Amino acid sequence: MCVNDIVVQGATPLFFLDYFATGMLKPKIAEAVISGIAEGCRQAGCALIGGETAEMPGLYQHSDYDLAGFSVGAVERDSLLTGKHVTAGDIILGLASSGLHSNGFSLVRHIIELNNADLSAPSPFNEAQSLGAALLEPTRIYVRSCLSAAAAGGLHAMAHITGGGLIENIPRILPLHLCARIDPTCWPKLQVFDWIALEGGVTESEMLRTFNCGIGMVVFAAEENVNAIETALIQKGETVYRIGHVVARENGPAVSIDGVYK
Predict the structure, then answer these.
(1) CA distances from 210 to 13, 50, 174, 213 (A)
(2) Of residues 185, 175, 180, 189, the one with CA closest to residue 262
(3) Helix axes 105-115, 191-200, angle to 10 degrees
């Protein structure tokens, strides 16, 4: 999540530090957590240069732990992506997500409790995984692909779709006089989101405000450069959809999602 937030500025993540706090250090758990962080750093091309491990039995239950971290990146000032170059007519590309991407878990836990779901049982939407493993599918890291797309030229902005979904994350990089017009039929929703909506009775508009709904990163590109940018993303392993375009904004919201939110 940290490195995805960095790359949308056009920056290259350089290093990451972690903080692991627990009531009682269990080496196997700590090793698994740090191994996962190291793998994320390899995918992002940044260094894991240190961290902190703290045992605080007066604060945490013995088997509980808390994990935090941060990353630092760098970008030349004239390459910084601020959204100021986004213009009407820009094409909006959506990069497929791998799952929930660490967002919306308060609602997910509520749905699990509501349905008395067994996390160790086969997932109802992917029998090759347990429900717990499917819900905890690691966040896709978009660093290498997005840096390659930026190098292709004509990339005007990127938005990392975290909590708040497309509706709340895209406006952060849109000039106030513009609107992102999104067509939700342009990409397939992952089955995990259909399961959440069905089992939790969650409306489509609320799903779009809480989850990424299958799009983990959004790229704004000039129309004349979109083919080159799309090719660069695909060559780095991304699944790319053309999900909309930028139009002039009148009195409506900054993000218009056809048939759902206007």
Answers:
(1) 27, 33, 20, 9
(2) 180
(3) 60
The rounded distance, in Å, linking the Cα atoms of 106 and 100 is 12
Strand partners, 96: 215
CB 247 within 8 A of CB 261: no
- Round the CA-based radius of gyration of the chain to a whole number and report it: 20
Per the structure, the count of domains in the chain is: 2
DSSP bridge pairs for 126: 123
What do you get for the CA distance between the two ends of the chain, in Å? 29
- Does residue 262 fall inside a structural domain? no
For residue 3, what are its two tokens? 């490195």
| Mean pLDDT of successive 10-residue stretches along the chain, which has 262 residues | 96 97 93 94 96 92 90 95 95 97 93 93 90 95 97 95 95 95 93 94 92 97 96 98 95 87 58
Q: What is the CATH number of the domain that holds 20?
A: 3.30.1330.10
- Structural domain of 230: 91-257
Does residue 200 sit in the same domain as residue 133? yes
SS3 call for 256: strand
The model carries a pTM of 0.93
Confidence at residue 261, expressed as pLDDT on a 0 to 100 scale: 61
> Are residues 157 and 233 both part of a single domain?
yes
Q: Is 53 helix (H, G, I), strand (E, B) or coil?
A: strand
For residue 10, give the nearest of 150, 138, 162 by alpha carbon: 150
